[in-house]
Amino acid sequence: MAMILHAFVGRYVSKLSEFIEEEMSMLLGVKDELLKLLRRMERISGFLESAERKRHADPNINAWVRELKDIMYDADDIIDLCMIDGRKLLEDHTSKSALPPLGLLPQLKFLRIRAAAAIKTIGPEFLGPRASAAAGTAFPKLEELEFYKMDNWEEWSFGMVEGVGEERRGALKLLPRLKKLLLGGCPKLRALPEGLWHVTSLQELGIYDANNLIEIDNLPSLKTLRIYNCPRLEHVENLDRLQYLDTATSGTDADGETEHLPQWLLELLQNAPAALQNLKRFTLTCSVPLLKTFLKDGPNWPIIQRIPHVSIYSGKLDTFGRSQSYIEYTKDPPAFKTNVVESEESVDG
After folding, report:
1. Domain ranges (residues) in the chain
2. What pTM was computed for the model?
3. Could you read off the pLDDT of 208-260 as tens digits, one per residue?
4. Residue 74: enclosing H or E segment and its boundaries?
5. β-strands 281-286, 309-314: how paired?
6. Is 19 left (phi over 0), alpha (psi -120 to 50) or beta?
């Protein structure tokens, strides 16, 4: 048994090693994932070789077999990912402006697309041909999806038209297990795709350096939202289950010392009682003048007073890399700490 498994693992170790050395493993940032799989498989291979040498049945072999099955799924998907995307991008110049149908990979759990500068549009072809049918499912096991450094990416579409019954039924099977979506360095992306609100498993969204993004809306299951450097963002709405909000303001004055909250954030915190009802923690990085507006007598104190945990930091750092100014507030038990006016003060109730 151990000898057979050892030979089986050895074949995959060799296969992974070959792909790690190829240029195509770098195209979607999967080289690190391949190396992790390789290390795990080499560890299993060593154990199985030892078990075969000792010629006795080790009860741990069953555990290794279960782990091996999971690794095989991951290895196959990542290698398929390299083959599908890498070979197209390396051999066919015209395909550099489009992504392959990665939604067809049935076991894929994690996908990162990085530095695809030629991509301007990601459309329904990314999901695969079966995804457009009501009976199809795109990315059936994908849990994390990340896009990084997509300098020319402008449009993201699932190819769905709201109000069309059949397409709406199909959307219910789009990304059924997606929990985490990260977008970083996508300066030209104008909007999140229509139909993302159908992804009811989505719990965490992080968006960084999306200069043209205007709206984040209708994500009914979202619990964690991180927004950094999205200067054109106007509306963040209908996030009724939001629990953790982490953001930073972008300076609009010449010196970056703006004293005003961005409108989307002000509206979310002031006029969205449903959102605030579940909000547990709010973290803000901002200018010192804006930070001072959250002091107990400041105009923005009533906004944070209702939130259980609040952390506000200035963007300016001291010589040790720490924020020079801060506010830490806890609603229950009541506590308010800041180094802006005095070293520490307490809140009464």
Report:
1. 1-95, 98-232, 243-349
2. 0.70
3. 999 999 999 999 899 999 999 999 999 998 898 999 999 998 654 434 556 78
4. helix 60-81
5. parallel
6. alpha
